[in-house]
Design a protein that fits this description.
5-stranded parallel beta sheet; alpha/beta; globular; about 55% helix; 11 helices; Arc Repressor Mutant, subunit A; single chain
Length: about 230
């Protein structure tokens, strides 16, 4: 179909008004210079992502946050000089609640992983990780997911506690427990809705209630705390 001149001008003006989405802003807080450089190259090499800041310690990153810079995702080392990564999580989330934090740690350090999740981290990356894992974890975090899946948090807690907790007061309803149990199996919200024959919005409502009752903000932390307290 051939456009006349006014139509062509209107279409061109409309096309020009559509602006591309800004890249996902990723900060690196890692004291190992070589690993930090590798992470930076990986992030900057991905379409739609930008490593907008790098820090060798948490204190400098917090100063940048207080100055008004807000990243979408922070890759945060657990073992940092000065303020350690786990203690830095709460301060980062206090300044910028929407920022997703993915910890850089080793797999066999279960206690630190658990503490990081309970403090508000969205997940973790194995250190060192391959390129695909790094990119996948950032994408999962920015979409609201948990690179450390709920079932991993559950298995870590099982090893730490031996499931010896006393029977607690059941603060979750039966339906909320069902939702959380399926979440611990790695089901997404749509999968949970299909399994329980509920609407997506009803599952979302249950999830919000679970977060409020357990005083957490992520699915991983909800599963971790529920297992720790014997709710699952």
């Amino acid at each position: 179909m051939k456009l006349n001149e006014p139509e062509f001008a209107a279409r061109a003006e409309q096309d020009e008004s559509v602006q591309p989405a800004p890249p996902v802003s990723v900060w690196l807080i890692e004291d190992n210079q070589n690993f930090r450089a590798t992470l930076s190259r990986v992030v900057n090499g991905m379409a739609g992502m930008k490593c907008s800041n790098q820090f060798s310690n948490a204190e400098d990153a917090l100063d940048a946050l207080r100055a008004g810079a807000v990243p979408d995702v922070v890759l945060l080392d657990v073992g940092l000089p000065g303020l350690n990564g786990i203690d830095a999580i709460k301060q980062i989330k206090t300044i910028s609640p929407t920022t997703r934090i993915v910890m850089l740690t080793v797999f066999d350090d279960h206690e630190k992983v658990f503490k990081a999740v309970c403090a508000g981290a969205s997940g973790y990356l194995l250190k060192p990780s391959n390129t695909a894992s790094i990119v996948r974890s950032i994408k999962e975090a920015i979409s609201g997911g948990a690179p450390m899946t709920p079932q991993v948090a559950k298995s870590v807690l099982d090893m730490l506690s031996g499931r010896t907790a006393l029977k607690p007061v059941q603060i979750l309803t039966n339906r909320e427990q069902s939702v959380l149990r399926l979440m611990a199996q790695g089901r997404g919200m749509k999968g949970i809705a299909d399994e329980l024959d509920l609407s997506y919005h009803t599952v979302d409502s249950h999830l919000r209630n679970i977060y409020a009752k357990l005083h957490v903000h992520t699915s991983t932390a909800a599963v971790a705390k529920a297992v720790k307290d014997g709710l699952l």
